[in-house]
């Protein structure tokens, strides 16, 4: 069996540098004459992607379940072409994937459940604000379901950055999920996702320091991918598991 192209995903919080790094990586692959393609989720160009874009810009309101399913449907739209490209030997670099889908949706909480609001007892005395994580709006296992069976990445690079650092970067706050509290919960959820991916043993999950200088991050990415993108992958493409 001939080798197939590697499926490499870059994940992280908003403003963690994913898109910049994905573009740098694809240029490097092209300069090295390695057949490769850059894709991004959400893909805002499709009809489903346009609905997602409008939701993220807060131009439309959608039920939390519905938007979650749209994000997943947006991946299913491209799933067969991803498989085809990989089998043809093309490396796929993918800016966000199902892991973002799980982490961003499973970290949503009701606005009234935001922590730190002091509550008052029936006798009128104040209860100190708690820092307990509020209950999620969508169960974690429900959030995982729609992406089950999608092609699984061979390698996921998580660009780790502290939410307080990300929130200082230019452009932060422009879209719906770009607030520090949500990003903090997203980062915790990504840790859970990472543990599960590692336990499944289907693809590799690597955490890289996204807080370094651009070029240092690019180099750390290159040292993780260079072998697999040059040599291709021997085994069959995996699937996202339940
Ligand atoms: P972007 O900034 O990479 O274009 O992503 C847009 C936002 O959508 C970002 O806050 C992450 C979020 N997101 C989800 O909530 N679910 C998903 O499935 C994906 C791919 C992104
Ligand atoms: Mg963003």
TrEMBL record:
Residues 117-128 have a biased composition (Polar residues). GO terms for cellular component: cytosol; nucleus. It is an enzyme of class 2 (transferase). Its EC number is 2.7.4.9. Pathway: Pyrimidine metabolism; dTTP biosynthesis. The keyword Transferase applies. Residues 10-107, 142-221 form the Thymidylate kinase-like domain. One of its GO terms (biological process) is dTTP biosynthetic process. Keywords: ATP-binding, Kinase, Nucleotide biosynthesis, Nucleotide-binding, Transferase. The keyword Secreted does not apply. It comes from Cristinia sonorae. This is Thymidylate kinase. Pfam families: Thymidylate_kin. Transmembrane segments: none annotated. GO terms for molecular function: ATP binding; dTMP kinase activity; nucleoside diphosphate kinase activity. InterPro entries: P-loop_NTPase (IPR027417), Thymidylate_kin-like_dom (IPR039430), Thymidylate_kin_CS (IPR018095), Thymidylate_kinase (IPR018094). Signal peptide: none annotated. Belongs to the thymidylate kinase family.
């Amino acid at each position: 069996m001939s080798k197939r192209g590697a499926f490499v995903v870059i994940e992280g919080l908003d403003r963690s540098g994913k898109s910049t790094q994905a573009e740098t990586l694809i240029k490097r692959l092209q300069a090295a004459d390695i057949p490769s393609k850059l894709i991004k989720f959400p893909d805002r160009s499709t009809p489903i992607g346009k609905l997602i874009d409008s939701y993220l810009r807060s131009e439309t309101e959608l039920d939390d379940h519905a938007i979650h399913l749209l994000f997943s449907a947006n991946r299913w739209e491209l799933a067969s072409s991803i498989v085809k490209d990989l089998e043809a030997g093309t490396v796929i670099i993918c800016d966000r994937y199902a892991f973002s889908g799980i982490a961003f949706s499973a970290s949503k909480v009701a606005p009234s459940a935001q922590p730190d609001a002091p509550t008052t007892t029936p006798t009128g005395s104040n209860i100190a604000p708690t820092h307990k994580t509020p209950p999620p709006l969508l169960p974690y296992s429900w959030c995982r379901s729609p992406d089950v069976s999608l092609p699984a990445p061979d390698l996921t690079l998580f660009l780790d950055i502290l939410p307080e650092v990300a929130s200082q970067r230019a452009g932060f706050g422009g879209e719906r999920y770009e607030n520090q509290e949500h990003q903090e919960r997203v980062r915790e959820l990504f840790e859970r996702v990472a543990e599960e991916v590692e336990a499944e043993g289907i693809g590799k999950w690597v955490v890289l320091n996204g807080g370094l200088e651009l070029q240092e991050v690019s180099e750390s990415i290159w040292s993780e991918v260079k072998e697999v993108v040059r040599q291709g992958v021997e085994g069959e493409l995996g699937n996202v598991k339940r």
